[in-house]
Specification:
This protein is an alpha+beta fold. Helix content is 12%, strand content 29%. A ten-stranded mixed beta sheet has the order 9-8-5-7-6-27-20-23-24-25. Strands 13, 14, 15, 16, 19 and 28 form a six-stranded antiparallel beta sheet that branches.
């Protein structure tokens, strides 16, 4: 190792010690015999609002541009921001100590399923709703957690090489250092990410925090007003994540200049049609784990559903607003596991199963269908017609086939 290189690495070590950052991982690019930080440069440069979480551009004009992800209508300015990107999918935890989470109110779609031990995990899809809300230097989403194989299957629906943000994940690991692999092959998410081509040189769509600059993701243990365990403290910047993807050549096109949505299958959408009904679903993911019980209270005035989790309003820390959705889908899937000593679970994502769709104060009893990992999950009513969703945020709640929903 050259003296110059040794000197640079020494400076990095001193920086980590002096700033108290014990869990930052950096990207380096070698220039000659020197290492330099690989830092993404945000493409939107307007400063955020005083709170740090408001729009970074002036959103003027009619809302007549339809989001392909959830059908919601936005301004032309917002469309110009999102159409040069591809969807960003972020793993956000839901451990009770991690609440309130940041950024979920700006997601277009959110998936929720048990990760392990009755604790659910979320995968938020950001594209249209967050297009104008990144903010320079603002870590606006989190806490970000690890990858799970069934979330990869849903992420695969959103582009040829989906931008998938997470902190590590289930992989071939041992019970003790140096021991044999004790992880069931079916749940080895990190190995699957590699096999799907998301780590290939020209298609590096995987956004594992361990391979990102600290200015993209960082730990904020006191963010919500009191200290939390390390695993509940990782937050990332949507703006910096998209800038990283742009630097890698993954924008609205891939390295072959093919559009990300070339094979994307959008759902069907409709305008609101509120009824006289007031059906509000409530359920447990696993029985007797009330901290993760969910109720969606139907609000007639807004024709939306307000989320309650563990008996408390589910709040977005960024804007202090209760999370609401225009559509709440219950997808019943076969649950298998734990399948290994690490207590990993599996959910059936390909095939068909029962589904309940809550919208307009009513419930639609039907089914879901997904033909392959990369195919879109579609939802049908009892007569076999595809369900048209209300324009706006969609939550997909994945319950085991034995799950009970009261409404």
């Amino acid at each position: 190792m050259s003296k110059k290189l040794s000197f640079v690495l020494s400076l990095v070590g001193l920086y980590l010690v002096s700033t108290g950052i014990s869990f930052a991982v950096f990207n380096f690019t070698k220039v000659g015999d020197m290492l330099v930080f690989e830092t993404p440069v945000p493409s939107v440069s307007q400063p955020p609002t005083e709170s740090g979480f408001g729009p970074i551009v002036s959103l003027v004009g009619p809302k007549d541009q339809v989001c392909p992800i959830n059908g919601e209508k936005f301004t032309k300015i917002e469309k110009e921001l999102w159409e040069v990107k591809r969807p960003l999918l972020v793993m956000i935890e839901n451990h009770e100590d991690s609440r309130p989470q940041s950024g979920l109110s700006k997601a277009d779609v959110v998936y929720e399923a048990v990760s392990e031990g009755a604790i659910t995990r979320l995968m938020a899809v950001f594209y249209c709703g967050n297009a104008a809300y990144s903010g320079n230097g603002v870590y606006d989403i989190g806490p970000v957690r690890s990858a799970r194989t069934y979330f990869l299957d849903w992420a695969s629906e959103y582009s040829d090489f989906p931008l998938y943000n997470h902190v590590g994940g289930a992989n071939c690991s041992s019970e003790s250092p140096g021991g044999p692999c004790t992880t069931d092959k079916r749940v080895q998410a990190l190995e699957q990410i590699q096999s799907y081509g998301w780590l290939s040189e020209k298609t590096r769509s995987d956004l594992n925090q361990f391979a990102l600059d600290y200015r993209v993701c960082r730990r904020e243990p006191d963010r919500i007003g009191h200290p939390v365990a390390t695993e509940h403290s990782m937050y990332c910047s949507t703006e910096a994540l998209w800038a990283t993807a742009e630097k890698r050549g993954l924008t609205n096109v891939n390295y072959k200049d093919q559009l990300w949505d070339k094979n994307y299958r959008s759902w069907l959408f409709k305008d609101d049609s509120p009824s006289s009904g007031s059906v509000s679903p409530e359920f447990d993911f696993w029985r007797d784990y009330k901290a993760y019980a969910v109720r969606w209270n139907y609000d007639k005035t807004t024709n939306s559903y307000r989320r309650v989790n563990g008996g408390e309003p589910f709040i977005d820390f960024n804007n202090k607003e209760q999370i609401s959705a225009r559509n709440v889908i219950i997808q019943f899937a076969k649950e298998t596991g734990p399948v290994d000593i690490h207590k990993h679970l599996l959910y059936e994502t390909v095939g068909t199963g029962k589904a309940l769709v809550f919208q307009d104060g009513l419930v639609i009893e039907g089914k879901w269908s997904k033909k392959s990992r990369t195919d879109r999950t579609l939802f049908y009513n009892s007569t076999g017609s595809e369900v048209k969703f209300n324009r706006g945020q969609v939550w997909i709640e994945v319950l085991p086939t034995t799950g009970k929903v009261n409404y």
